[in-house]
Specification:
Length: about 375
């Protein structure tokens, strides 16, 4: 099986976030048949190959390389907008079309086939553990990668001095993403007094008045945080309200006793380090309580001079101009912040603009080129 065939097989297994059991079982079975030692649960399927230099067969592997990606997809949306079923992999002369082709079943398939090709060739330069890992639920809260990292930390025998890795998120086969801002989705809860809406002063006592005051000051907060928590590589943090609910629609003449705002906050390492203090100060000033809407994803940053970057540049022919930061959060933060001495970056063959689109596709040429680049990347170790 090659990278084209494996991509098609993965596309044809429906795996919308929360429904990944079948595809994880397929991947675990695939890796087991390739002689990997395999672990699989509802969060991930992981295969381990022990790479041994013929002259040092018995030496313990103190280094690991992780090739990884998520196998969940967003929902297909309007099925009528698809030319064919989202789970029918269509192959043309140039493309493979189907849900998850670019984001990111194609990249994961190419990584796995590259690893198997590398193992077949042999003549290894050194010893290391090679992990092939498929994770779930990245599109929602990164639970799969988070729980793989927790699991790996709990295992005896895997106390690596160095870990290197690539996440095959779509970067058009030309960008290497060294970091991203974190994301924290928060629910802000405001309380107030109810009163008859015929009296103007009752609005000032209501929860909606407090929520509105907070929203009116969003730009002030943003500017203050930008000056205090900016990062030279990741830029400024941001906080964007995404929803507001208040009052009782059944009683339009009663002011609101409660109101809620959902915020999408993108953090820098500087803000992450001071987040609880910074947000508690806001809650005191604007009179609200707050809680996480979902598990926060930490910000992360890998050095441009790291070994993993140098080896990707050598194996691809790319230059420093290809190094950038991710526009959104990925699983990278879970690996870099959760594992010691870890350099994991994002680099994949998919088309970023195709992610979450109907009739999503990946170019076959980029897929095969990426596979060969990953083989060469592994040879650098």
């Amino acid at each position: 099986m090659n990278e084209i065939e494996l991509t098609k097989k993965l596309i044809e297994i429906e795996s919308v976030s929360g429904n990944e059991t079948k595809i994880l079982e397929f991947i675990a079975d695939f890796l087991q048949k390739k002689s990997a030692k395999v672990w699989q649960n509802e969060d991930f399927a992981a295969g381990l190959f022990k790479i041994r230099n013929s002259k040092n067969q018995n030496l313990k592997n103190n280094r690991a390389i992780i090739l990884t990606g998520h196998i969940d997809t967003v929902s297909a949306g309007d099925l009528n907008a698809w030319n064919k079923s989202p789970w029918q992999a269509i192959e043309t002369s140039e493309k493979i079309i189907g849900l998850g082709a670019s984001d990111m079943k194609g990249g994961l398939a190419a990584q796995f086939i590259a690893a198997l090709d590398f193992i077949k060739e042999g003549n290894f330069k050194s010893n290391f553990d090679l992990w092939l890992v498929a994770v779930s639920n990245e599109e929602i809260d990164a639970r799969g990668s988070r729980n793989f990292v927790k699991w790996l930390n709990q295992q005896s025998g895997f106390n690596y001095k160095e870990i290197f890795g690539i996440i095959a998120e779509p970067t058009n086969n030309k960008n290497i993403e060294i970091g991203h801002r974190g994301n924290r989705f928060l629910t802000l809860k405001f309380t107030g007094e109810s009163g008859h809406a015929s009296q103007q002063e009752n609005y000032q006592k209501s929860a909606l008045s407090k929520a509105s005051n907070f929203l009116l000051n969003i730009d002030t907060i943003f500017n203050s945080w930008g000056g205090k928590y900016s990062n030279i590589h990741l830029g400024k943090p941001s906080l964007v309200p995404t929803s507001l609910s208040a009052g009782d629609k059944q009683s339009p003449n009663k002011t609101a006793t409660s109101a809620e705002i959902v915020l999408d906050i993108r953090t820098t390492p500087e803000l992450d380090a001071d987040f609880k203090n910074a947000f508690n100060l806001l809650s005191e000033k604007y009179d609200f309580s707050w809680e996480y809407h979902s598990e926060p994803v930490p910000s992360t940053l890998v050095s441009k001079d790291s070994t993993v970057i140098k080896n990707i540049l050598k194996s691809t022919g790319l230059t420093n101009s290809s190094i950038m930061v991710s526009p959104g959060a990925t699983d990278q933060g879970e690996f870099v912040n959760g594992l010691k001495n870890t350099q994991v970056v994002v680099f994949g063959p998919g088309e970023w603009d195709e992610a979450h689109h109907q009739n999503e596709f990946i170019y076959k040429e980029k897929l095969s080129k990426y596979k060969m680049e990953i083989v060469d990347f592994l040879k650098e170790f």
